[in-house]
């Protein structure tokens, strides 16, 4: 009589890792649905409700060249003149801020880093406020915003290297970033102080609170170009970012020119942050909380982390913008809502790191 066959099943850490990896791959495959669903939902909500079937019917009528009359004419004005530019800009800004935040965290090997903490947002905000004060157009505001943002990040990085010692870089990076952030915030306050109280001051103040209420197709195109210019190098450099997260020595052993790639990544990330701020104003915390949430979902590999951050960040900011324009009769500045969400999350991260250290 033959002995019954016994099937041995290997149970161990590796099997668990494979299961987690497969789960993350499945989740990553579903993520593209998020911004698409948020986009379709956003088309229907607002002061002027538009059912989704009516939207597709309107698209068909425009494609066939059918004249729009009555409700369809009003619907077309709302959708294509107001709502669609705002939706696209929210998707672009959310994607840009999330991608820049994830990249900064990889460059500096610190998950607590974001464009806000490094001072990039404050520097870009000062540059844009200065451009508004001098009546620059959108291209001038974007250029001034970029120069302010890159200056702030370079100051933070250089000051940290100058005063830091091995093992203290993470804490000093955060502290130095706060110093630079407050410095540029003071410069912005000076700009507001000297601004014309009847003209420029209200414009700067409203812009600093962040929002997309005045977005037109012109701003969408002005945002799309620098976003593409900043995003492409990041996506092409994902494996180099992975190498940088292990340290410069390990990255150099893999053939990565750490100095050149770090300059390219900082330049591209700051371009994304500055272009977003130039169009939408100061919208904080997105670059911190979205990469963290994404890392929990898909893991730390930048091959999937960066595109997933873009998808989740774009959907997140679009949904927050929907809340900003629909919850109350008066629209809430977008930067206020993201701060309400982001500040408690940052406190949670600090407490979590403290618990892990103990």
TrEMBL record:
GO cellular component, one term: plasma membrane
Membrane topology: Multi-pass membrane protein
Location of the protein in the cell: Cell membrane
Molecular function in Gene Ontology: transmembrane transporter activity
Keyword Cell membrane on entry: yes
Biological process, per Gene Ontology: siderophore-iron import into cell
Residue ranges crossing the lipid bilayer per the database entry: 27-50, 62-81, 87-105, 170-195, 215-236, 263-290, 332-351
Pfam families linked to this entry: FecCD (PF01032)
Alphabetical keyword list: Cell membrane, Membrane, Transmembrane, Transmembrane helix, Transport
The organism's place on the tree of life at top rank: Bacteria
Family statement drawn from the similarity comment of this UniProt entry: Belongs to the binding-protein-dependent transport system permease family. FecCD subfamily.
Protein name per UniProt: Iron ABC transporter permease
């Amino acid at each position: 009589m033959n002995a019954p066959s016994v099937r041995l099943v290997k149970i161990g850490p590796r099997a668990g890792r494979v299961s987690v990896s497969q789960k993350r791959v499945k989740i990553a495959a579903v993520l593209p649905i998020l911004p698409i669903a948020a986009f379709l939902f956003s088309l229907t909500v607002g002061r002027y409700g538009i059912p989704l079937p009516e939207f597709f019917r309107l698209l068909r009528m425009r494609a066939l060249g059918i004249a729009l009359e009555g409700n369809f004419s009003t619907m077309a004005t709302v959708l294509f003149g107001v709502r669609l530019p705002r939706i696209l800009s929210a998707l672009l800004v959310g994607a840009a801020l999330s991608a820049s935040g994830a990249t900064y965290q990889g460059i500096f090997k610190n998950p607590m880093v974001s464009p806000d903490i490094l001072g990039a947002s404050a520097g870009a905000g000062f540059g844009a406020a200065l451009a508004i004060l001098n009546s620059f157009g959108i291209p001038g505001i974007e250029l001034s915003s970029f120069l302010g943002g890159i200056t702030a990040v370079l100051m933070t990085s250089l000051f940290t290297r100058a005063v830091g010692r091995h093992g203290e870089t993470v804490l000093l990076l955060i502290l130095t970033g706060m110093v630079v952030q407050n410095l540029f915030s003071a410069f912005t306050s000076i700009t507001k102080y000297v601004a014309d109280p009847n003209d420029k001051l209200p414009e700067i103040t409203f812009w600093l609170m962040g929002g997309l209420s005045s977005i037109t197709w012109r701003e969408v195109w002005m945002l799309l170009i620098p976003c593409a210019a900043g995003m492409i190098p990041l996506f092409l450099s994902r494996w180099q970012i992975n190498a940088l997260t292990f340290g410069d020595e390990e990255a150099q052993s893999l053939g990565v020119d750490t100095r050149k790639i770090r300059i390219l990544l900082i330049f591209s990330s700051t371009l994304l942050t500055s272009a977003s701020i130039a169009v939408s104003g100061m919208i904080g915390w997105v670059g911190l909380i979205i990469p963290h949430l994404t890392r929990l979902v898909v893991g730390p590999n930048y091959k999937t982390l960066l595109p997933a951050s873009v998808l989740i960040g774009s959907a997140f900011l679009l949904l927050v913008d929907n809340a900003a324009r629909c919850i109350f009769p008066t629209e809430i500045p977008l930067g206020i809502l993201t701060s309400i969400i982001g500040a408690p999350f940052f406190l949670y991260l600090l407490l979590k790191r403290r618990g892990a250290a103990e």
